[in-house]
């Protein structure tokens, strides 16, 4: 999910360059123009952050799949599949020494990936926070974006896991308890995001800054006021249902709430980007943006790309880690016997 | 049947506990050149066959440090020596703004070291290995557990080692051709 989402998301920074075919100019490489990127810019930080995020996620994903490629290799009946999975498994034979190093590598990667998530979303928030634009220049942004990322991440996991679980009969692997735990994390991070909104609102008054005050009033009652109130509904109000235990264990309700959060987070980014840009510090930059049919087409196309990649993945590779499930079953058996 | 040297002898077990017990006995018996195979990691198995030193954490640490130093130096050299720019009157060596990229390159470098280090230490990719010559071995990635004592081991003797292995209660004992 992460990989395909990053791939889709990574398209847009490239497109917004205006001349996307020059995207490689953002990297420091020896060139005939004699120029180098400017490292004090959040846009350049973003290049390194998103590239690292994509690469580390890819490595983590691939590492986790190696023993499962070996399983698929050994179970293949057709020569081509045995060859293909065999190449990917790279000769994995389940040696105890290899497993020992493997577990260490997996643990280390997990330990690296956690601060990576925090740093990547912080750097992405800097694209806004380091700028002067009212509504962007706020120190709450890094924790707000990280919490928002985890919030929308868990919502996406639920959006994908619930149908996959139903249509592939995975209820014993992705149990109701898992879904309930995910719902609780969603509720917790959702409340952090609510805190972020409240702080923005509070500081727009407490700071005494005319520009901040106008920004907040414009968000609520300006040309895009309906987006703001839709945001409140989808991101804040609907997920409050998760306080009730009955809702947290109701699969259909969780699916609806997860979709609501997906929509809400999209609205949040829209409100942040479009509303603040429509009323910048410079009145000559003021304007009212509305999406064209082409904007919507690119957006829907990126969702299509994501779904296509997901379905290809589900068709060819294990959705759930096979060797980890085997290990868990073994642990359960030993607990029963012991 | 001709008698070229075989790679070793392999015993098949139906449970990880049986494999672990057999591995411990083999180590106690004095066998050192051996390996155990399982479809999922079994705790204590690597130690049982004598594996002690895992170099991976050190490799990852060194990789991370190289990433950090390299990342910072890259930015320093570009911003101070190669292509200095006056951005908002900041000093050329504006180290606080170099931190995000340095951090990311540290993580990237450490992660690459972890995966490449793992593959290198494990000797992968290794498309051929003698153990794959045993037909039953395809179950090693499914639900069977194997112990293989190599013929290169000083204590290895075709008949004596076979008798020892049969004594540990396996599902079967097989010869592994080279």
Topology readout:
The complex is a heterodimer of chains A (338) and B (178).
Chain A: H1 2-15, H2 42-75, H3 79-89, H4 96-129, H5 141-167, H6 176-206, H7 210-221, H8 225-237, H9 245-248, H10 251-278, H11 293-316, H12 322-337
Chain B: E1 8-13, H1 16-29, E2 34-37, H2 45-48, H3 56-82, H4 95-122, E3 145-150, H5 158-167, E4 172-176
Antiparallel strand pairs in B: 1-3, 1-4, 2-3
Helix pairs in contact in B: 3-4
**Which two chains form the greatest contact, residue counts included?**
A-B, 61 and 65 residues
Overall geometric form of chain A: globular
- The residue fraction in helices of chain A comes out at over 70%
Radius of gyration of chain A: 23 Å
Multimeric organization: heterodimer
- Helix and strand content put the structural class of chain A at mainly alpha
- What are the segments of chain A in which pLDDT stays under 50 over at least 5 consecutive residues? none
Tally of helical runs of chain A:
12
Share of residues in strands of chain A: under 5%
User: Which regions of chain B contain 5 or more consecutive residues with pLDDT less than 50?
Assistant: none
The total beta strand count of chain B reads: 4
**What would the average pLDDT of chain A be, to the nearest integer?**
93
Query: Could you give the order of the helices and strands of chain B?
Result: EHEHHHEHE
Question: Tally the helices of chain B: what do you get?
Answer: 5
Q: Work out the count of structural domains of chain A.
A: 2
User: Judging from the principal axes of the Cα atoms, what is the shape of chain B?
Assistant: rod-shaped
Percentage of β-strand residues of chain B: 5-15%
Please bin the fraction of helical residues of chain B: 40-55%
Indicate how many domains the architecture of chain B comprises.
Answer: 2
């Amino acid at each position: 999910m992460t990989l395909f989402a990053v791939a889709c998301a990574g398209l847009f920074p490239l497109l917004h360059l205006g001349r996307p075919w020059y995207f490689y100019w953002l990297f420091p490489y020896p060139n005939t123009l004699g120029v180098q990127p400017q490292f004090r810019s959040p846009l350049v930080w973003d290049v390194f952050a998103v590239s690292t995020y994509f690469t580390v996620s890819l490595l983590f994903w691939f590492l986790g799949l190696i023993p499962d490629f070996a399983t698929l290799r050994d179970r293949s009946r057709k020569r081509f599949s045995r060859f293909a999975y065999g190449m990917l498994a790279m000769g994995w034979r389940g040696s105890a020494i290899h497993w020992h190093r493997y577990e260490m590598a997996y643990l280390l990667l997990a330990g690296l990936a956690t601060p990576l998530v925090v740093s990547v979303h912080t750097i992405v928030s800097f694209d806004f926070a380091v700028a002067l634009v009212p509504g962007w220049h706020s120190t709450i942004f890094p924790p707000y974006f990280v919490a928002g990322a985890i919030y929308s991440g868990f919502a996406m996991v639920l959006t994908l896991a619930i149908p996959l679980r139903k249509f592939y009969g995975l209820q014993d692997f992705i149990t109701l308890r898992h879904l309930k735990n995910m719902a609780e994390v969603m509720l917790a991070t959702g409340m952090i995001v609510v805190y972020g909104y409240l702080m923005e609102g509070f500081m727009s008054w407490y700071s005494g800054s005319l520009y901040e005050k106008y920004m907040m009033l414009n968000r609520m009652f300006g040309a895009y006021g309906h987006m703001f109130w839709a945001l409140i509904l989808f991101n804040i109000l609907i997920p409050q249902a998760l306080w009730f235990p009955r809702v947290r264990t109701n699969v259909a309700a969780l699916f609806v709430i997860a979709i609501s959060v997906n929509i809400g987070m999209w609205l949040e980014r829209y409100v942040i980007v479009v509303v603040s840009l429509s009323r910048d510090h410079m009145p000559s930059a003021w304007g009212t943006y509305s999406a064209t049919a082409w904007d919507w087409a690119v957006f829907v196309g990126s969702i299509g790309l994501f779904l296509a990649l997901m379905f290809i993945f589900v068709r060819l590779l294990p959705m759930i880690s096979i060797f980890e499930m085997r290990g868990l079953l073994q642990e359960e058996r030993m607990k029963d016997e012991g | 049947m001709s008698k070229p040297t075989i790679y070793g002898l392999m015993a098949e077990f139906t449970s990880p506990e049986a494999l672990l017990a057999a591995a411990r006995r083999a180590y106690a018996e004095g066998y050192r050149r051996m390996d155990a195979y399982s479809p999922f990691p079994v705790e204590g198995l690597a130690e049982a066959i004598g594996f002690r030193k895992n170099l991976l954490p050190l490799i990852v640490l060194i990789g991370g440090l190289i990433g950090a130093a390299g990342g910072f130096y890259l930015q320093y050299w570009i911003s101070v020596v190669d292509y200095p720019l006056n951005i908002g009157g900041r000093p050329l060596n504006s180290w606080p703004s170099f931190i995000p990229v340095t951090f990311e390159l540290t993580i990237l470098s450490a992660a690459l070291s972890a995966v490449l280090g793992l593959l290198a230490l494990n000797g992968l990719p290794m498309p051929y290995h003698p153990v794959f010559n045993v037909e039953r071995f395809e179950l090693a990635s499914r639900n069977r557990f194997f112990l293989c004592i190599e013929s290169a081991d000083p204590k290895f003797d075709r008949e004596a080692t076979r008798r020892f292995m049969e004594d540990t209660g396996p599902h079967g004992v097989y010869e592994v051709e080279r």
